[in-house]
Structures are given as structure tokens and as C-alpha cells.
Design a protein that fits this description.
The complex is a heterodimer of chains A (102) and B (160). Chain A has no helices and nine strands. With 102 residues, chain A is mainly β. In chain B, strands 3-4-5-6 form a four-stranded antiparallel β-sheet, with no helix packed on it. Classes of the chains: A mainly beta (102), B mainly beta (160). Chains A and B meet through strand 1, strand 2 and strand 3 of A and strand 11, strand 12 and strand 15 of B.
């Protein structure tokens, strides 16, 4: 008998500054967690990453995060609420998604 | 061709390396080290192999196991290749230059290890599994530094 875990960790990734890790799950949520304190600094609601088997990847410049599955690609641009910092920086929270394509 | 590996130049789109029959069965995963010197791949025959790209060295079989690989990652400093194993839940760390198995996190996860990632400073390994459990490992002292079950389980819904 096969158990289906919606909490299945689909992908883990570490930010370029080695300070945070990003996890996504089959339940379509995503979290950003501090690698020193292990406090989750932001949790994205359901639906932020594509359903079922998917992949996430940070761009090398840290500005964007790509999430894809078979047939869907999302480009997520994360910025601080102040709009003043364009790079993906996690020194302050909360973050929010300013653009999501497809 | 089954088991072959090909590398293409991303700018010219030209085929720059082709290794026929790199594996006896299908090649499962492949990664090029950050210095561009080696191609490391896993195969259906459950072997982990290293192919020199810049020299005339022959290929090396880093390790072979009875159970399939689940995931593979190379540390950004090109020192280690880290593999997750399907049946045992082990995470094995091999030194690329020497083939030496420097550490094994035995039964690192009780369930299928679904993803692994290494920090850009090569000091931290993060692993996640099918139950939503996350573990964080110190790659300097080879010890677990964090463990959280049901990391994404706020809306956990298990069914049989």
C-alpha cells in the first residue's frame, strides 16, 4: 500500500549568500528559512509553485526564482516591501511576490 | 545511445564531448564540476563514475552500490560528490580527487530522500524527504545540525 505525502519535499535550494535555504513541497507551498537560526522567515501560500513534480532554481544573480513542472514555468521576482532593494536579499522580512508569469 | 553522455557548448551549441557507453544501463544524472575538469554521472547499473574532460585520464568508478541513487550533488568547491541512496536512506560523501569515501550519514532519512542541496560556501548540506522532513548537515565536522519533521506539513493530508 502506497502512502501519498502531500508534504513531500520536492526541492531544496540554498541562496548564494549561504544564509537561507528554500524548500518547496508537493503541497505547492514554499518556505525560506534561515540557515543559522533555522527560523522560517517567509512561507508562501499554496499554489506558489506548480502542482505535482516540479523544480525550483534561483538565478545566479539572486533576483529571481524559477519554478517549473511539466508544462508550466513560473518566474517569481522577490523584492522587499520597500521596493528599494532589487536583489533577492533576506535580511529583512516580509517579502512578497511582485510578478508571477504564466 | 543508451548509457552515453554528451556535453554541448551553451554558446555555440556544438557537441564538445561525447562518451559512448559511459554506463552499462541508462545514465540517470550527470553534473560537470565547477572547474570544468570532470563530468560525474550515475547510471542504471548503480555506479557513480567520473570522466575527465580536460585531460587524457581514464574514467574512474567512484563507487558502486546494490541500491539505486536518489540524488547527487557536487560541492561548489569541487571537493566532494554527495549521493543519496534510495533504499538505505544513506548520504555518502566521496572526495573527488581521491575517490575516498570520507563520510556516510547512515540512515540519514527513513524515507526516500527527494532533494539535496549544498550551500555555495560548501559548508552546509540540506536534504529533504518524501515525508516532508528536512535535515541540515555540517560538511566541515560531518554532523547533523538541524532536523524538522513535517517541515511543510501545515496542511498535511496523508491518504492510503
Amino acid at each position: 500500500m502506497i502512502k501519498l505525502f502531500q508534504a513531500f519535499i520536492q526541492k531544496v535550494s540554498v541562496t548564494m549568500d549561504s544564509k537561507y535555504f528554500i524548500t518547496s513541497s508537493l503541497d505547492t507551498t514554499m518556505k525560506i528559512t534561515n540557515l543559522v537560526t533555522f527560523q522560517t522567515v517567509y512561507e508562501f501560500k499554496k499554489g506558489i509553485v506548480p502542482e505535482k513534480e516540479h523544480d525550483i532554481a534561483l538565478t545566479p544573480d539572486g533576483k529571481s526564482l524559477l519554478a517549473s513542472n511539466r508544462g508550466t514555468i513560473k518566474m517569481l521576482i522577490l523584492q522587499q516591501r520597500s521596493y528599494s532593494i532589487s536583489l533577492l536579499m533576506f535580511t529583512k522580512v516580509p517579502f512578497f511576490i511582485v510578478e508571477a508569469l504564466l | 545511445m543508451k548509457g552515453s553522455l554528451s556535453i554541448f557548448d551553451l554558446e555555440s551549441k556544438a557537441l564538445v564531448h561525447h562518451i559512448p557507453q559511459a554506463h552499462a544501463g541508462a545514465a540517470i544524472t550527470a553534473v560537470v564540476t565547477n572547474d570544468g575538469n570532470f563530468l560525474i554521472s550515475t547510471g542504471e547499473e548503480k555506479s557513480l563514475r567520473l570522466f575527465p574532460l580536460q585531460s587524457k585520464q581514464v574514467l574512474r568508478e567512484i563507487t558502486k552500490n546494490k541500491t539505486p541513487f536518489e540524488d547527487m550533488v557536487v560541492t561548489p568547491d569541487d571537493r566532494y560528490v554527495i549521493t543519496a541512496w534510495l533504499s538505505t536512506g544513506d548520504i555518502k560523501i566521496h572526495e573527488i580527487n581521491t575517490n575516498k569515501e570520507v563520510h556516510v550519514f547512515e540512515k540519514a532519512h527513513a524515507w526516500r530522500i527527494s532533494s539535496t542541496a549544498v550551500s555555495p560556501d560548501s559548508r552546509i548540506l540540506v536534504s529533504g524527504d518524501a515525508t516532508g522532513e528536512i535535515k541540515v548537515w555540517d560538511l566541515i565536522n560531518f554532523k547533523q545540525i538541524y532536523n524538522k519533521e513535517r517541515f511543510h506539513a501545515s496542511n498535511l493530508d496523508m491518504s492510503e
